[in-house]
Amino acid sequence: MKKRIIFFDADGTIWHPKKTKYKKHPVWIYLDKRVKNPRDHLILTPSALQTLTRLKKLGLLTVILSTSPRKQKEADARLNDKIKHFKLDKLITEFHATPAKGANKSKGRNIVRILKRRNLSKSSALMVGDSYEWDFEPANRHGIDALLIESDYEPMKTKLKRTIKKLSDIFAYLS
User: Fold this and answer.
1) Mean pLDDT of 44-70
2) Interatomic CA distance for residues 71 and 23, integer angstroms
3) Which H helix or E strand runs over 67?
4) What is the C-alpha separation between 50 and 88, in angstroms, rounded?
5) Whose C-alpha in 28, 47, 91, 98 is 20 to 30 A from the C-alpha of 58?
């Protein structure tokens, strides 16, 4: 079946820290006490804007699912702030912060919930992320196709054939 909805992780997938890019896990930016506003230290990943624009033109739904340790309302507000900061609000269909506690389960459950609400099948969905444990595996566990972006900070736990070097590589998978 053709894909109709693409789920994206945010940190490390749509944006990452300017300094470390794919060299260090992006969560460091939120833990470093010297960083007052992490958003100001983030940039879009290569081809993120072009990829989201092309997906929109193709009529695909795009959903950001980003893990956060904050309470739901604050986490959603911070995620929305980043989406607006990067001027992605017209390209993202919806977004949700997912709880950090049990994150390796919450993203998969959120994907299934969103698919049910939109009356879409699991085979019509694709999850794209930079973490095997928090993005790739939870989607697969729920029967959702997934792609993992290669990085220096995410050691491959298995020999995956579903890896991409940059976000725009998803089009080779979609065709």
Assistant:
1) 95
2) 29
3) strand 61-68
4) 11
5) 98
